[in-house]
Design brief:
The complex is a heterotrimer of chains A (about 270), B (about 280) and C (about 230).
Chain A lengths: L1 H33 L5 H5 L2 E2 L4 E2 L2 H32 L4 H15 L2 H15 L6 H25 L3 H9 L4 H29 L3 H4 L19 H10 L4 H33 L1
Antiparallel strand pairs in A: 1-2
Helix pairs in contact in A: 1-11, 3-6, 3-8, 4-6, 5-6, 6-8, 7-8, 8-11, 10-11
Chain B lengths: L1 H15 L1 H24 L1 H6 L3 E2 L4 E2 L2 H32 L2 H16 L2 H19 L7 H26 L2 H9 L4 H12 L1 H17 L2 H6 L17 H8 L5 H33 L1
Antiparallel strand pairs in B: 1-2
Chain C lengths: L15 H9 L6 E3 L11 E14 L7 E2 L1 H9 L16 E5 L4 H11 L9 E3 L2 H10 L3 E6 L8 E2 L1 E2 L6 H5 L6 E8 L5 H10 L2 H9 L3 E2 L16
The chains are: A mainly alpha (about 270), B mainly alpha (about 280), C alpha/beta (about 230).
Chain lengths: ~270, ~280, ~230
Amino acid sequence: MKMTDRRITLLFTCITGLTILILVFIIGFIMVKGLPGLTLSFLLESPKEMGRTGGIFPAIVGTVLLTGMAVVIAAPVGVLTAVYLTEYTRDTWLPKIVRFGTESLAGIPSIIFGLFGFLFFVIYMDLGWSVLSGALTLSAMILPTIVRTSEEAIRAVPDAYREVSFALGSTRWQTVTSVVLPSAKPGIMTGVMLAVGRAIGETAAVIFTAGSSLRLPGTLLDSTRTLPVHFYILAREGISLENAYSTALVLILLILVINITAYAVMNRLANKGR
Amino acid sequence: MHNKETLIQWLLATVALSAIAVLALIIIFIFKEGSPVIARLGLAKFITGTKWSPTRGMFGILPMILGSVWVTLGALLIGVPMGLATAIFLAEMAPPGASRILKFAIQLLAGIPSVVFGFIGLVILVPFIRQWIGGPGFSVLAAAIVLGIMILPTIVSVCYDVFKAVPEAYREGMLALGATRWQTIKMVVLPAAKSGIIAAVILGMGRAIGETMAVIMVAGNATKIPVSPLEPVRTLTSNIALEMGYAIGEHREALFATGIVLFIIIALLNTLARIVARSEKV
Amino acid sequence: MSEKKNIIINVQGGGSSAGARAVLSEVAEVGMLSRELQGDEKALIPTIIAYDAIAIIVHPLNPSCNLDITEIRSIFAGEITNWSEVGGNARKIHIVAREEGSGTRGAFDEIIMGETEVAPGAIVQDSNGAVREIIAGDPSAIGYLSLGLVDKRVKAMAISGVLPSVDTVTEKTYKLVRPMILATLENPGKETRDFISFCLSEKAREILAREGLVPVAPTAAGRSPKPDHDK
């Protein structure tokens, strides 16, 4: 009996090891292949010959613009939705619908968001392939993540805080703005950062809505190309594998930094709670 | 004072409805664009037709439906056992410190963009399959492995949470009866976590069916119904992304119609997940 | 286009059919096509500015280097499945095609395949580059792409003994060639006429050639209001 136990523990340790190995391999592989090409000028120069040579500056700008705008749009909506779901609802039909909406939205594949963004923002609203179309599409995509994590963060605020606030004569909204949201802020920030991490790496939803122009966008109505789209085109069309690896490295480092920061904030929270 | 509060409540309710509004817009726009071609061909013909040749006016997406099914099942075959074993190890076997670090590492795996997974599949997995297993490399197998790895973090983190939610008293009771750790896991933890595990599998399934860029890079995108895991295959998602660039007229409509079918499959999966989640609470 | 005073040219993507459609519906003044006009598009006035050869490509290590059109058709139809059937190594053939709707696929289907269908088991990729990457890595594969994108990692095959090149395209001995067409309505405006004559100018010819296309000979650069596309 003990024998089986030990064997199974060994087997499961190996499988876990394999899972971790895959992660280490992917990051390591991109690191090794991408590091030689990762220079300051690669980050700061414009691409030449479709990205065969030159840098990735416009793609970095495009990524930051698109993701930043998506968050600026989705974060207030998501946080307020979470406030409504946690602080304002009694069991009526409305929160059920809201919850159904966010849960369903969370399950929709990014390609569907891409199709929708193309039909609605690019064509129907006549925004064209643009930073704005891409950002609006991405904001719809990350909304459920922000709602869910904000809801968790707000629910984690002890009821005693609210009771004290009410006892001092505050209204519900005053309680929300002066007690609940400040206490939930780190948790909400974590959620927003995780959403940013997801948005940065997104390709399918962006390529149909923001297009793939290599030029630096002058206005929000200009088409732009994000890092994952640039990487996809470089790698797939065999334009330059070296630059593809370096682009992937920039992308992965960006996402890792954001995710690690998010988890660090979360961990500090968890420790403080204890 | 009271009036202001009511106003705020209504404003918040309006904002909160934006998620459902987006959902409604998605449904309206994609159905409006894709349904005419389904109406013209007949739904049955569209989803059971085996020939996809838009320039000849033939729009059958059965190969893509089956393609999505095979690739997703393959991904589950790889991702579920691996994910479950990893989650069991992390929740039940590993020392807490190691478990925390490893779980964090797996969360990072979830953050890697799908294009990067697809690319690694393209430069490593596809040539490997071509050289050592057979066929052109671009295959059901390649797509299933890439997707299997991509759904790992989902399966691990959901299962881990479910295991952690099983009350410690259950385990202690079994161990007190003289059961080994594995017996405890098998006879108490896994049964108690059953519906949570099913939810994790459905979640992973949704992610695998919906994935586009990674699949398009490694699956080969042939429009034939694959009869071997070594043959190239096209999924519903890659059908859309592959041909959207140049499609016009009826061809484009048929791609949106492909999106409708994908949407319905996802909606069914979500409903299933909701039913499972509810049954757990009872 | 920077030398063109004050004319802003908006470029929209979307492929040959979209280009013709846009001009027919008067959304655009000039439509670019990488294939002949067909059906109701024939109402438009075509100006050929260049030719593009489509190269049939294989891995450099593949000993086969010549096929005739019937063989190519049978291979892509999935009737010939082994290189040994066309005098090569005993290797299963992996077919790589472009996606439906693309101009390259359209030209290939029209010139090579005719009524025959491309085998549904063919690998499909959505860019010339992606096709080239596969061929460069797989000694059993065969595919096609624009001649300008052929590099040393792949080998262009001769069709019935004729290799694709600027010369064989100009002499019209290489058969797998598609025209690059600017389509306009009858009696286009002055800006449009200027744009078209720029595309036929020496400067434009240089640019086209740099992209691997074969510009039309200067003599054929018709000043006639209705350029004839056979000369």
